[in-house]
Amino acid sequence: MRPRTPLSRRPVRHAAIAGAAVLAMALTACSGGGGADSDAGQGGGKKQTSISVNLTGAKAKPGEPVKVTLAAGKLASVKVTDSKGGSLQGEIAADGKSWTSARKAAPGTAYSVEAKDADGGSAAAEFTTVAADKVNKLTLAPGKNTTVGIAQPLSIVFDHPVKNKAEVEKNLKVTTSNNTEGSWGWMQDWSGKDRADWRPKEYWKPDTKVTLDAGLNGVDSGAGGGWFVRDYSTQFTIGRSQVVEVDLDNHRLKLLRDGQQVKDVPMSAGTPGGEKASWRGKAVLMSKEGTINMRSETVGLGDAYDKMVDSSMRLTWSGMYAHAAPWNSAYFGSANKSSGCIGMSDADAKWVYETVQVGDPFEIEGGDAKGTQALNNGYGEWNLSWTQWQAKSALR
């Protein structure tokens, strides 16, 4: 390393060298009784020291913490800011000789480093990380600042594959207003993309406030996935406690609020014994879609139907809804004769539609089913035990 001339307490310019960025710091060597520090210049009263930064130049490698190391003495503070107005927080080591950022340097970002030592000396440096060759993004559900039912999971679908699932999960922080216990679980979404959901051990308590801070800026998804180049956040609130109970065998739909039944309506579900049968299990109301066009070919049932359907409430990605089905009125309360959905009268479906919340659980039971809703077919995580769900975390 080349020797450097002493620097004053004024701000200094960064000098780039091969290997590590060296920050020359001006330190005053205080002496008493006419003695002088052994490293001080003849009568100069100053000594030269240096700091190295592990990331240097205009093509620094992203995805690593920033580390600043002091050659002699102790650090008092280190500040690392980026060109986008953000900063990297970090800690000084116990021996005072180094500082390491808590987060990693993001791709395509210019950083400035300012360091001060315990004697008041200061120094500065700059570096820029290489831009990402591929950027990963994500989609969050439920929507920001929404109010949802007690079964709604926090769900993240990623644009590109996530190989480094554990690394990504470590940076997904969920906080709740009442310390709700929950866990992340990974799956392949119905769309084929990687997905991570966070569900509580049991249904949410009403009025719970939920916040996600996804500190992903600078995290590498792994092979084929690219880098995250921003952080994400969202928050939502849990609404009233409602459960919809669907009895396939007795052809009834009941709505319970705070454990008390408030509605019991006759219905007709999917015709048993084939592909037209309904799914059983704990489904979660995904969306309230109102009046929509339903066509049988979109769910693999040929040209069986093409109808405009009112009060449509989506329960699965595969096309299972609860909705108005006046054409099936002869079977309400007596037989399952639909093409897989839960059909009700116009009036009953309208009442249910207006009453339920996105995120309300539909607990569907009975033998007249073609099986249990799959994990990724909507929000199927409530069909797993708590132990089974926890096992889907990348950190287990």
Give an overview of the whole structure.
The chain is mostly beta strands and 396 residues long. The chain has three domains: 21-128, Immunoglobulin-like (Sandwich); 138-239, Immunoglobulin-like, CATH 2.60.40; 242-383, L,D-transpeptidase catalytic domain-like (Beta Barrel). The chain is 5% helix and 41% strand. It is built from three helices and 27 strands. The protein has helices at residues 165-170, 346-355, 386-390, and strands at 21-28, 46-53, 65-70, 75-82, 87-88, 90-92, 98-104, 110-117, 122-128, 138-141, 146-148, 154-158, 172-176, 182-188, 194-200, 209-214, 232-238, 242-247, 252-257, 260-266, 278-284, 287-295, 306-314, 321-324, 342-344, 361-365, 369-372. A six-stranded mixed beta sheet has the order 20-19-18-26-21-27, with no helix packed on it. Strands 1-2-3-7-6 form a five-stranded antiparallel beta sheet, with no helix packed on it. Strands 5-4-8-9 form a four-stranded antiparallel beta sheet, with no helix packed on it. Strand 6 and strand 7 form a beta hairpin. The two termini are 46 Å apart. 37% of the residues are buried. The model is unreliable at 1-48 (pLDDT under 50).
Q: Would you spell out the secondary-structure blueprint of this structure?
A:
Blueprint: E1 21-28, E2 46-53, E3 65-70, E4 75-82, E5 87-88, E6 90-92, E7 98-104, E8 110-117, E9 122-128, E10 138-141, E11 146-148, E12 154-158, H1 165-170, E13 172-176, E14 182-188, E15 194-200, E16 209-214, E17 232-238, E18 242-247, E19 252-257, E20 260-266, E21 278-284, E22 287-295, E23 306-314, E24 321-324, E25 342-344, H2 346-355, E26 361-365, E27 369-372, H3 386-390
Parallel strand pairs: 11-17, 18-26, 21-27, 24-25
Antiparallel strand pairs: 1-2, 2-3, 3-7, 4-5, 4-8, 6-7, 8-9, 10-12, 12-15, 13-16, 14-15, 16-17, 18-19, 19-20, 21-26, 22-23, 23-24
